[in-house]
Recover the amino acids of this structure.
């Protein structure tokens, strides 16, 4: 399976022109999580057929003052998840972003979100400077991504990237 196909498939769409939005933070409340974005995002969902089964992908994407904010979740088939270590999903996410942006890894560190291990990394590229967080919960991969195209960086990036809260009833990723 192409490591960027599912977890990062939304990136190509997100990089396309999306109308600029105002900078009034809003809380996205979904049945699995809450997250704070600078304004109301575009939503998208799809199912990708893979040799290991169907992968359900949902994303929320916002362009604000030239910068890009994206939140996505990908639900992988249980059999596929059982066949790979969780660290591989995180590594594949990082590599996929670097490849998509044709960028260079600047930094990476391990993070923990509500007891779940993940990775946070920064990338520099001709498209802008990016920062992302990827965490795996059960068979679900949560990805938060900011691409700063403006000269001062994305104003709400840290607020967005640190705002993810998993809802307890769904925190197992099942």
């Amino acid at each position: 399976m192409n490591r960027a196909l599912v977890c990062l498939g939304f990136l190509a769409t997100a990089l396309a022109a999306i109308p600029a939005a105002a900078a009034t933070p809003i809380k996205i409340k979904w049945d699995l999580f809450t997250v704070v974005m600078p304004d109301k995002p575009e939503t998208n969902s799809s199912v990708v057929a893979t040799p290991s089964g169907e992968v359900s992908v949902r994303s929320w994407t916002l362009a604000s003052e030239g910068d890009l904010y994206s939140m996505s979740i990908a639900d992988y088939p249980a059999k596929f998840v059982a066949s790979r270590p969780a660290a591989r999903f995180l590594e594949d996410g990082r590599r996929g972003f670097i490849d998509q942006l044709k960028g260079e890894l600047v930094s990476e560190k391990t993070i923990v979100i509500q007891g779940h291990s993940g990775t946070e990394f920064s990338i520099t590229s001709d498209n802008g400077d990016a920062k992302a967080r990827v965490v795996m919960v059960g068979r679900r991969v949560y990805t938060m991504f900011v691409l700063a195209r403006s000269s001062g960086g994305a104003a709400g990036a840290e607020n967005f990237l640190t705002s993810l809260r998993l809802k307890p009833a769904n925190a197992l990723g099942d």
